[in-house]
Amino acid sequence: MGLSNATDETFTSDPSVSGRVSNESSVDDLVVELDYDGDGVVDEVTRTDVYGQFRITPVGLPFGTTTIAARASEITDDGQLLQSGWSSITFEYDSPAPTAATIDTLGLANDTGVDDTDGVTWDAQLAGQVNTVGLLPGATIEFDVDGDDILDGAIPLESDGSFQWSPRNLDEGAVTVRARTRQSTDEGLPLVGAWTSLTFTFEAQPDDSPRVEQLQLTVDSGVSATDKASSDPTFAGMVVNGTGAVVQIDSDGDWVVDATLTPDGAGNFSYTPEDLLEGLTTVRARVAVPATDPFATEEFSEVGAWSSLTFVFAADPDSAEAQAKATALATYQADIASADATYETEIDAAELAYWTSITTSLDSYATGMTTAVATRDSAVALANSTLRSAVGAASLTFSNGLSTVAADFAADLVAFTGDISVFQLDDFRWPDAPVANSW
Fold first, then answer.
1. Same domain, yes or no, for 351 and 427?
2. How many domains does one find in the chain?
3. Mean pLDDT on 126-151
4. How many other C-beta atoms lie within 10 A of the C-beta of residue 297?
5. Which of 322-355 are b and which e, b meaning 16 or more Cβ less than 10 Å from the residue's Cβ?
């Protein structure tokens, strides 16, 4: 009997055991009883195959030094129970090493082509899902747009493993975006997943596409009518090229549709979000064209890109706090507009330098941590090997000493002429030797 999936019979993260039963008669379908805690009580049973072989994976074993004992039993034709002696294996059972999270899905959030599967879009927003099995806290998703292994963006995962991200400044044509996960173990070691790729065709948004324009507050009740601070969160917009379309509303900035409206004949609509928290608020609106084909599998034949509006919602929009937020928002938006219009090249260069630095730092950290852990493990392995050699030498000395004592005692008994029935060599125990440490 031994470990099924381990090259080292003394250490494993997979406690599966296997073995083979020998018998004077048939070895097929014999009962194998297993004891996992050394109390002599059967904790689980399995059966042999036609070759007398068995395999089982214990569930719920505690981590640490573990002993698994097994014995075979059968009932003879005359009803007699025959059992073998216990055979056992002892090993160090450690928790499986964490593995990098995998990306289950990566695709376009809004495929605006001829159909929703042709990979053609003018809305480059991506959406995906990470497998949450074994997912560690603080996991992020990293993106590379141009295949140079330098990150172009990174975002935290949502609690359910989902994510959305939009690449900036794409050129029209074929685009390949790669995404991967990054986590850190309790030791600080990086766990970086394999790249998952998505290729699609990016095209300019056509002028005749349905979209929302002029998204703005209905009433800007702050000090200025344009400071985007208001006690009334009602906003309005206009649908362009959306005959027969509806408007989908995201009222809390989470990219999820919270309401659906029907614009008036001129395409105008308005909406008042409910239960908003005071502070900086982002709302979104987009056009959705209902499918007219009775056999269509989707409710909408076309969905436009989100239009966003960010403002400060406050019961007192003229308060110092609200105005400070409004000023910060205006400064931020003005800087973004200026940068987009005038300094696009500089922004691209800055982003490249930033993400190059981030990528280099992450790679250096990963290499350093991996080297440090390998050095530590090598030192521990050497120390354990030295310790085992010392323990082995001490055990040999101890065994030789016992043999000498026994031989001397036997010789003394032979030489003794009195009553030897009252003499007995008492067992004695040396102190326990130290054991190898596990890290």
1. yes
2. 4
3. 88
4. 7
5. bbebbeebbeeeeeeeeeeeeeeeeeeeebeeeb
